[in-house]
Specification:
The complex is a heterodimer.
Chain A: H1 7-12, H2 37-58, E1 61-63, E2 68-70, H3 74-79, H4 83-113, H5 121-133, H6 136-146, H7 153-160, H8 175-200, H9 204-212, H10 217-228, H11 230-246, H12 249-254, H13 266-275, H14 279-310
Antiparallel strand pairs in A: 1-2
Helix pairs in contact in A: 4-8, 4-11, 4-13, 5-8, 8-11, 11-14, 13-14
Chain B: H1 2-33, H2 37-40, H3 53-99, H4 105-117, H5 122-132, H6 138-161, H7 166-174, H8 179-190, H9 192-208, H10 211-216, H11 225-235, H12 240-271
Helix pairs in contact in B: 1-12, 3-6, 3-9, 3-12, 4-6, 6-9, 7-8, 9-12, 11-12
The chains are: A mainly alpha, B mainly alpha.
Chain lengths: 311, 276
């Protein structure tokens, strides 16, 4: 089974695996030409690197369809003054941490459970994983209907057992969390599979030795399973945080940022400002998102991987 | 015996929960897609009193002058071309990156990681596409998908190339193969299993993509299926049966991929998996 590779993992090993190089060099042309980098590099540089670098300049401008005017940091000042933009900024963190935390906890429990000896394991794994592959738009439409406060199936089912269901997507204080709930529903299968792959990699001898020592199930979990699943946890945390911070399509399909702007996140603010023709402000939002992602992911992956090495 | 109780008791409880939480929503799609408009409007989880499933599918496909059929064609072209280009170019980079120690390697590795983590700057990308005359074209969207998807491919290919013995390269070189022939005739065919993994994972991702299509290929006439489905919400709020027939149609391609390539998809997503 392949082991999990988190983004920071390769960077800390200073440039990935470096195979031994034959000593004869210079005389003959290498059979591994560096121009193989060029075709891919063209796509990457033109459509990813150039726009990313350019975004730093454009974020400092008032930019419309017609002209570009340099205005310094005004866009960023606006970003942290207008309530709806600030809401989007704060919601991004709430959404990312709620979804990521839930996926870690549920994925761990499900992964451990589905690695134990139970009937229909294959069926259960396949069922939990399938939503990962379904289009986000399809899932968004589906749950918009299921969560309908008036006669939607979820609230009907809750009413049948005597619970009054909330107004999932139309309650301003709940809309963002409802979308996060659907995000977890869709994404927990991937976390579970990563944990299952981690469980497979744990040698059975540890559990056998623990059995001889008379360890309880909880002690097994606490002192063997949990520490040895660390690489899987690192992968799940980083993956779901990166995805959560950038998340757009599910929110856009389910609430469009509403009601009002209570479920806006940075990515939906970026789209709204772009639609409204404020390209400079939209790009400033992109730079803010860039900084947020970089400020969380790079230190976190460094810290997680470093702690792993100590053990 | 505790083990047996766990095996059956826990298993059956889990099956019931999985059915309610994960299977019922998909059955709801099928039921609603099979109902008449009036019955679907009730939003009930129930067996349709009258199955009009195929009529609904036909109606959805014919809506607005076969818009959805054209969208499926666009999505098929987009997915095929983007994934094909990504696989070949990604394999070339992953291969040289693993085989040769050059001063470019640290830079390339950094860029690969950056490509996985950093959110693309959308409006400046539109600006670049406009400058190239590719904005709002299928070619432009294909190029964008290639650019954003390469990092993931490179990571998987680099890891896999390490498992191919160098002796094979040396034997081919002695036989007089040049660099291009060595790669395309000797190494590339050996990458088959990881190529399948990359293809299915990226195909599902590109086919399901909504955000990039919304930004870089807006409008209706050459939209992708995700975009037409999204636009369908506003047009047919009253006919849930047709909306869900549409949702069902766009769910089928990933389902087919999953049935045939479950192992590869799982391997790809849990190994180098750095996709959001």
């Amino acid at each position: 089974m392949t082991t999990a590779t988190a983004p920071g993992r390769t960077s800390t090993s200073s440039g990935g695996p470096t195979p031994p190089q034959p000593a004869r060099r210079g005389r003959m042309k290498s059979p591994y030409p560096t121009w193989f980098f060029i075709p891919a590099g063209v796509f990457y540089v033109v459509l990813f690197l150039v726009p990313t670098v350019a975004s730093f300049y454009f974020s400092l401008t008032r930019w419309t369809l017609f002209d570009v005017e340099f205005i310094g940091f005004d866009n960023f000042v606006r970003f942290f003054q207008e309530p709806q933009l600030v809401t989007g900024f704060v919601n991004t963190f709430i959404y990312a941490f709620v979804t990521s935390g839930s996926k870690v906890v549920l994925g761990l429990l499900l992964g451990v459970f589905l690695s134990s000896q139970i009937v229909a394991r294959g069926f259960l794994r396949a069922t939990i994983f399938f939503p990962v592959l379904v289009s986000t738009i399809g899932v968004g439409i589906l749950f918009e209907v299921l969560m309908d406060p008036f006669g939607g199936p979820i609230n009907e089912a809750l009413a049948a057992i005597g619970i009054e269901g909330p107004a999932w997507l139309t309650d301003p204080s709940l809309a963002l969390l409802s979308v996060a709930l659907v995000d977890v529903w869709k994404g927990v299968g991937l976390a579970t599979l990563i944990y299952i792959a981690g469980m497979v990699a744990i040698p059975q001898e540890y559990f056998e030795a623990a059995k001889v020592d008379g360890a309880s199930a909880w002690k097994n979990f606490r002192h063997i399973t949990l520490p040895l699943l660390r690489p899987a946890t690192v992968t799940v945390v980083l993956l779901s945080l990166i995805g959560g911070l950038r998340s757009f399509d599910l929110i856009w399909a389910m609430t469009g940022g509403g009601p009002g702007f209570t479920s806006d996140v940075l990515a939906s603010v970026i789209y709204k400002q772009y639609q409204a023709g404020f390209f400079g402000l939209s790009t400033a939002g992109n730079v803010v998102l860039f900084v947020v992602v970089a400020a969380i992911i790079f230190p976190l992956s460094w810290w997680l991987n470093r702690k792993g090495d100590d053990q | 015996m505790r083990g047996l109780g766990w095996k059956w008791g826990g298993g059956i409880l889990a099956i019931v929960i999985a059915l309610v939480v994960f299977v019922v929503p998909f059955v709801f799609i099928v039921f609603t897609a099979g109902k008449t408009q009036a019955e679907a409007a009730a939003l009930e989880f129930s067996w349709p009193t009258e199955w009009v499933f195929f009529e609904n599918i036909a109606t959805v496909l014919q809506t607005r002058d076969f818009l959805l059929v054209r969208a499926f064609l666009n999505s098929a072209i987009l997915t095929t071309v983007a994934v094909a280009v990504m696989v070949v170019l990604g394999a070339m980079v992953g291969y040289v990156l693993q085989r040769r120690r050059s001063r470019w390697n640290p830079l390339v590795n950094t860029l690969v990681l950056a490509g996985l983590i950093i959110p693309p700057a959308v409006v400046p990308t539109i600006w670049v596409l406009q400058g190239l005359g590719l904005f709002k074209t299928l070619v432009g969207l294909i190029a964008v998908h290639v650019a954003f998807g390469l990092s993931f491919c490179i990571l998987l290919f680099r890891a896999f190339v390490a498992t191919i013995p160098r002796e094979l390269d040396e034997a081919a070189i002695i036989d007089g193969a040049g660099p291009v022939k060595l790669f395309f005739r000797v190494v590339f065919p050996l990458l088959r299993s990881v190529i399948v993994t990359v293809i299915v994972v990226q195909a599902v991702f590109v086919f399901n993509d909504f955000t990039y299509a919304l930004y870089f290929l807006p409008g209706d006439e050459n939209a992708t299926v995700q975009l037409t489905t999204f636009n369908y919400i506003s047009q047919s709020v009253s006919s849930f049966n047709l909306l869900f027939a549409d949702v069902l149609l766009i769910t089928i391609p990933p389902l087919i991929m999953y049935i045939f390539f479950q192992r590869q998809i799982v391997a790809g997503m849990t190994s180098g998996a750095v996709k959001g």
